[in-house]
Structure formats: C-alpha cells, structure tokens
Amino acid sequence: MSCRKLKPLRWGLLGGVIAAGVLCALGFLNQPRQSRQPVALAPDIKLICVENLGKIDARLQAFDERQLTTANTPWTLFHVLLGRTRDFELSDQNDSKKLTCLTWLLQDASWKPRYEGMPFVRVTHGMPTFAVREEDKAGVFQGHLCQFLWVLTECGLSPDDVRVQVSSDQALTLRQLMQNELSLCTPYSDLSWSLPVAVRWEGRSRWADRFGNEVTLDRMFQWHISNRQNSVACFGTHYWIGLACALNSSGKQISRETRTAASTQLGSALKTARQTLTEEGQFPLEVGTFPLDQSNARQPAPKDRQTMLSHQGHMLTWICMGLTDDELAQQAWPHLATRWLLKEMEKKESFEWGGYSHAIHALRWYRKRMSALDIISP
After folding, report:
1. Long-range CB contacts (within 8 A, 24+) of 135-141
2. For the chain, what is the domain count?
3. What is the pLDDT of residues 184-193, one digit of tens each?
C-alpha cells in the first residue's frame, strides 16, 4: 500500500538540471544533530549494526538497478528520487532514447500534458506551483504542499541553480517555485514538508503569504507544533519527519523558546517509539499517530505487509533524523527496528514504489548516521 493510500484513521516530495543530478548523491543527505565528539558503539549494539550494514548495501543496489520509464507518474518518480537521493536514467516510453529523471520531470513533464492530459505544474492563485491533489488514487501529483520540493532538498539540489520549465517561454528556479508554494501555507496547513523546505532553502528571515500577512520560520515552527492533530498523513509519520528534519537543519532562524518546545515534543515522540517497539523490532501501526485522540473511534488498522513495511520505513526515517550519536551508540532499539525492516524487505512479494522508496530512504539515513560512529561496514 502506498503512502497516499494510508488514509487517516481519525487517530491519528537542461544543463542546470543535468549538473544538479550529478551532484545529487548520498553525501548530500542533510546532517542530523550529532555529538561534539566521536563516539563508539556499545559492543552488543555493534554486532547488530554490523549485521545491518552488511545487508543494507545489497538492498540499495537492488533498488538502484530497477528500471523506470517516462510512463511512470511524477509521484512515483519523485519517490524513487527520494530512495536514490540522486538523479538516474529513464527510458522514454515513446522513443529509444535515454534521459535523466530530473530532465524529464523539470524540463518536460512539468509543463507539457504528459499525465492525464495535464502538466504537473499548475497556476495556483496566479502562481506556478507543483500541483497538489489530496487522496490522489492515480498516484500522479503530490499529496501535500512542498512534498516534491522536499524530495529535491533530500537530493541536495541547489534552489538557485536548478530551473523548472513552467511554460514554453518561462522557467523558474526551485527557490522561486518554493516561495510560491510557501505563500500558500496557513496556520492550518499540513506543514510536514513545507517547514523543512523553508528551513533549508528560504534565505529570507520573513516573507508574506498570498494575503499579505507576514510569515517567519519561527512562526511556521509554531504553526506546525500546534497543529499536530491535523497532520495525520501516513498515520502521522509525515509530521515527525518534518519536525525532525526541520530541527536538524535550523539554526538561529528560530527562537530558543520555539526550539525548546519543538525539541521537547520530538523527544517525547522518540520515547514513545522506543517504549512501543515490539520484541521483534516492529513499530505498531498506531505509533505514528501518538498521542492518540481518544475521543475518536479507531478503525481497524490494515495489516498487509506493504503497509507495515512502509510504516516501518517512515518511522525509522524520523528516528534516524532525531536521535543523537550518543543515543544511537548506546540504545539498541533503532538497530533492532532496522533489522526488522531489512528482514521484511528480503521477502518476495508484489512491489509498490511509494512505501518501498520510503523504506530505502530510511536505510540510507541509517547508513549515513552509522558512518559518523566507530563502525566499519563489512
């Protein structure tokens, strides 16, 4: 089951593009919060970590070797970009020629009617933006503001060097497109992707929304942490990914009070995730939505393997973003969660790009974090 299919249960991403694709590599994953001094893993944890790292490279290689074409939708291609964290080659379904994914998405399909007879860049309130279509069962467009832009930040693209063709005679930089999408954000929006994009790419200390109201990064943080119950996509995990990612990337743009409030909320979520992890290393599906809204009746959670794998990947992503080096070195639970995910990915079953790409992305984050510790992959 894909991420966009995980409906809320009430309980709660040419020269300039090609060059950017070359630069878009694993090393550009944004740095998580880390300890000041290098730390070594506890001996028992090191054994699990070595086992995990020995399997991760094979999973990543198998994912990277899968072939895609221009027949795959933008939603699928952006998820694969998230999993690979770099540009890759596509086959043109109508031609024998090869082209890169970023070239196809940002120079062609962005403004030509390639999917459902429409481009996926639209004019919204007089501004070009990536089109948003919530509950898009066809899996074509982004389901949330700035979702595709966030994927591109994870790929390490420069917002000023990469341009998106929005019509036959107009191209915008990623920064301009971002500013358009940010102007649509309100205190009631799901800011799970918009907040980290703003933290990473928005160089201005303040800007105006489409109504002329002043917005700052600090204010966006406050909106996000006050709007927890309305951010329930993928069982609430998008919220935590956005919060952890934004905290990792932010500096003096936010006040001490706001950082403390956000860090406290994230710390509480990490504690709950640790306490609810099963002995096998699985995160129960309900965990992403904590704290649960007890006033709402809970529908039965899906139990299919693809949903559980997707949920584990989503959870592990924000956990790898949120834990410090010391915590990763001394606590076994994130390593057990990674081991569970790897075991599930070894099983042969139908393949779904959305959830599986998030799982691969989580493994890249885990490997990135482990590279900072005293551990050598076999």
Report:
1. 135/4, 135/7, 136/4, 136/75, 137/4, 137/5, 138/73, 139/2, 139/4, 139/73, 139/75, 139/76, 139/354, 140/73, 140/74, 140/75, 140/115, 140/116, 141/74, 141/75
2. 1
3. 999 999 999 9
Q: Domain with 108 in it: what CATH number?
A: 1.50.10
Paired residues of 215 in beta bridges: 207
Strand partners, 130: 121
Domain-located, residue 377: no
Give pairs for 267-276: CB < 8 Å, separation 24+.
Answer: 269/240, 269/322, 270/319, 270/322, 270/323, 273/315, 273/319, 273/333, 274/331, 274/333
β-bridge partners, 89: 100
Neighbours of 61 (CB within 10 A): 9
Q: Is residue 89 part of a domain?
A: yes
pTM for the full predicted model: 0.86
Residue with tokens 């309130």: 125
Q: What is the pLDDT of residue 5?
A: 40
At residue 302, what are phi and psi to the nearest 5 degrees?
Answer: -65, 150
**Cβ(355)–Cβ(28) below 8 Å:** no
N-term to C-term CA, the chain: 33
Per-residue pLDDT reduced to its tens digit, 63-100: 999 999 999 999 999 999 999 999 999 988 777 778 99
Q: What range defines the domain where residue 150 resides?
A: 4-286+300-370
CA proximity to 147, closest of 26, 139, 206 = 139
User: Can you tell me the distance from the alpha carbon of 305 to that of 95, in angstroms, rounded to the nearest whole number?
Assistant: 36
291 in any annotated domain: no
